[in-house]
Amino acid sequence: MRKRVTKAIFPVAGLGTRFLPATKSVPKEIMTLVDRPLVQYAIDEARAAGIKEFIFVTSRGKNALEDYFDNAPQLEQELRKKGKDELLDILKSTNMDSGEIAYIRQHKPLGLGHAVWCARRFIANEPFAVILPDDVIAAEKPCLQQMVEAFEETGGNMVAAMEVPDDRTNAYGILDVKEDMGSIVSTKGMVEKPEAGTAPSNLAVIGRYILTPTVLQKLNKKQTGAGGEIQLTDAIDAAREDGEEVYGYRFRGQRFDCGSKAGFLQATVAFALARDDLRDDLWNYISDTVYADKAAQ
């Protein structure tokens, strides 16, 4: 019987420079899509997949992120006093129990692989997930839950994958496909950010992983790859070379790159339009704006 995936690593040490000046004092991960921080979407997805232990790899200036998951007694008291029970329930759902969450610092920005390696002592000899909160995925069944269910059948290492245009392969880790089985593909290699025209496929790795302890052993070597950083995809590929299978999983859902301003805005609109309490007003505004622009032309 395969060991269950109950731990997840959240690499959140980045400075969020693409969102300056907002991220001068606000960690990017608690910037909000509608009324929930990016990191809350990641936590909710992890919980739906059965994750019980949440490991955050942070850096200096992320105290507000840690405070977000703590109790807020004064605020709870005010909401209770005013009878705002619905808001009180929402607030309590963001709290994390003692021992459920851990924080460790990445002191130098040496790459995603290094960030995952920093959390190695929390993992032991068991499979674990990695979730990048920048990648927000709208799906009827949360992406990581889909992957956990597939992992229970395949074992090995698994990465979330999606098709990207040929001229965008240099922005992703790209899978070299051995066998395409539909939602799952087996791989014979992974290439980090290949130049356009040189990629083995257009199936790109995005920010969801289920990995074995072997990957952490490979990261122990601290070998640098593309961009002079310690690349997680390189360690996964090294595990494959040692005989472990690596699978790509074509998830069902829409991914938004909330590490970019355009992706963040697209996600905000998409999630707002999915809300019954916001859809009509927002859609009317968008329609009126488009009509006014066309009329002006």
Give me the number of helical elements: 10
Rounded to an integer in angstroms, the radius of gyration calculated over CA atoms is 20 Å
The helix-and-strand class reads alpha/beta
Please mark out the parts with pLDDT under 50 across 5 or more consecutive residues, or reply none.
Answer: none
State the helicity in percent bands: 25-40%
Order of helices and strands: EEEHEHHHEHEEHEEEEHHEEHH
Brief synopsis:
The chain is α/β, with parallel strands linked by helices and 297 residues long.
Can you describe this structure?
The protein is 34% helix and 24% strand. With 297 residues, it is of the alpha/beta class. A hairpin with a 3-residue loop joins β9 and β10. The model has no long low-confidence stretch (mean pLDDT 89).
Features:
globular, alpha/beta, 297 residues, 34% helix, two-stranded antiparallel ribbon
Chain-wise SSE layout:
Blueprint: E1 7-11, E2 32-33, E3 36-37, H1 38-48, E4 53-58, H2 63-68, H3 73-81, H4 85-92, E5 101-105, H5 112-118, E6 128-131, E7 135-138, H6 143-154, E8 157-163, E9 173-180, E10 184-192, E11 203-211, H7 213-219, H8 232-241, E12 246-250, E13 254-257, H9 261-273, H10 279-296
Parallel strand pairs: 1-4, 1-6, 4-5, 8-12
Antiparallel strand pairs: 2-3, 6-11, 7-13, 8-11, 9-10, 9-11, 10-12
